[in-house]
Amino acid sequence: MGTRSLCFLLFFLFLGRCCCQYEPTWESIDSRPLPEWFDQAKFGIFIHWGVFSVPSYGSEWFWWYWQGQKLPSYVFFMAKNYPPGFQYQDFAPQFTAEFFDPEEWTDIFAASGAKYIVLTTKHHEGFTLWGSKYSWNWNAVDIGPKRDLVDELARALRQNTDLRLGLYHSLFEWFHPLFRADAANNFNTTLFPQEKTLPELYEIVNKYKPEVLWSDGDGDAPDKYWNSTGFLAWLYNESPVRDTIVTNDRWGKDSICKHGGYYTCTDRYNPGHLLKHKWENCMTIDQRSWGFRRDAKFSDYLTIEQLVKTLVETVSCGGNLLMNVGPTHDGRIIPLFEERLRQMGQWLNVNGEGIYNTTAWRAQNDSVTPGIWYTWRPQEKAIYAFLLSWPNNGYVVLSDPIVSDSTQVVMLGYKPLKWDPLKPSGLQVYLPTLSPVEMPCSWAWTLRLTGAA
């Protein structure tokens, strides 16, 4: 064999090894390192939007609760407000999105301090927000807005912000005849994933190149039915986003909190302690629903104090926070959602140093003083202590840091503070007397400790 032929052979052997680094097994898929950007990001925005935004009553599971479980409140709501024979599909023309302004959305998301977004491209109802070839006449290009909503948001996001694009996709669909046929066969047939789910997944990855792929809705089917490891092997080996893509753990009924790029475990998951595996707390500003609800009460919405507390606790325990908003059927992010997002951004403008690019410290919360959570920035060897409430005695005790003569304490957004060492360990930090206008922020405060162990 000539030198040139040998070079070509070695090149193709090397190329083959690179292209097939991950095999379609969980052992191999789980060995892939999580792209570094995701752990550094800490905070993202979830967006639940679809045909369920039209009735905007009760939950984004409206169709299932009405037609599947036939819950009395949903049945009564439909009987009272819609004519006999009205079907869920009749809501689709009313999903109009006439006020959807992707640049306005991205401005709000950027102002929140989030580093990535996750848009529901298809929920369990099966309606796709892009003109999918595999969802004929049940997508936002064929009916309703007559627009590719995914493409519009992706373009605005990339043209106007540094936020990363994430796409949510439901594996199953409640009432799709192919899925129901497979379910009746105990998932021994795979018509639905082969004809619908997998083609859609390849379609959105190749077309929109997301950096988060948020899978959901296994329909009680195992990952083998969905060919999840086969798809993920392609995603990690050959897809256009193979180097940066991040995935979650919802790839079959037995995979959640066990397999995948990061764990979500359950909705609104917040363990309160450090986990060995990277995780994400996906939660909602409206405590009762992921989609927009016209029947929501003011008390249903979390306050900014509660949201900041959730962010701090999540990051201190090594997680990311994915905070959800539900737009209206006509494409508006209601003022209350916008206010919460902008408030979070105001807080992060002052305190983000202790959130972004940090890791969990050896103690997650203080062992003596309640309401204090810690993070750690290895590059600067800085400890960050978050005070969720302002003490009324003029000082705060941090029992876990080990101080030295060179220890310095600074309140982010303010200036250095005085402190005294405590025995056997810890320190007492003296807080300044400040008027509300002098406060660096309004909801939770961060102390940065350097020169401490």
From TrEMBL:
Q: Name one Pfam family in it.
A: Fucosidase_C
Q: Where is the signal peptide?
A: 1-20
Domain Glycoside hydrolase family 29 N-terminal as annotated: residue spans: 21-353
Q: Which UniProt keywords apply?
A: Glycoprotein, Glycosidase, Hydrolase, Signal
Q: What is its EC number?
A: 3.2.1.51
Main EC class the enzyme belongs to? hydrolase
* Residues marked May be important for catalysis (site): C282
Q: Which domain of life is it from?
A: Eukaryota
The keyword Glycoprotein is annotated on this UniProt entry: yes
Reactions catalysed:
an alpha-L-fucoside + H2O = L-fucose + an alcohol; a neolactoside IV(2)-alpha-Fuc-nLc4Cer(d18:1(4E)) + H2O = a neolactoside nLc4Cer(d18:1(4E)) + L-fucose; a neolactoside IV(2)-alpha-Fuc-nLc4Cer(d18:0) + H2O = a neolactoside nLc4Cer(d18:0) + L-fucose
Looking up InterPro entries in the UniProt record yields:
FUC_metazoa-typ (IPR016286), Fucosidase_C (IPR031919), GH (IPR017853), Glyco_hydro_29 (IPR000933), Glyco_hydro_29_CS (IPR018526), Glyco_hydro_29_N (IPR057739), Glyco_hydro_b (IPR013780)
Output the Gene Ontology cellular-component terms. lysosome
Q: How does it assemble?
A: Homotetramer.
| Physiological role | Alpha-L-fucosidase is responsible for hydrolyzing the alpha-1,6-linked fucose joined to the reducing-end N-acetylglucosamine of the carbohydrate moieties of glycoproteins.
The similarity annotation says: Belongs to the glycosyl hydrolase 29 family.
| Protein's name in the database | Alpha-L-fucosidase
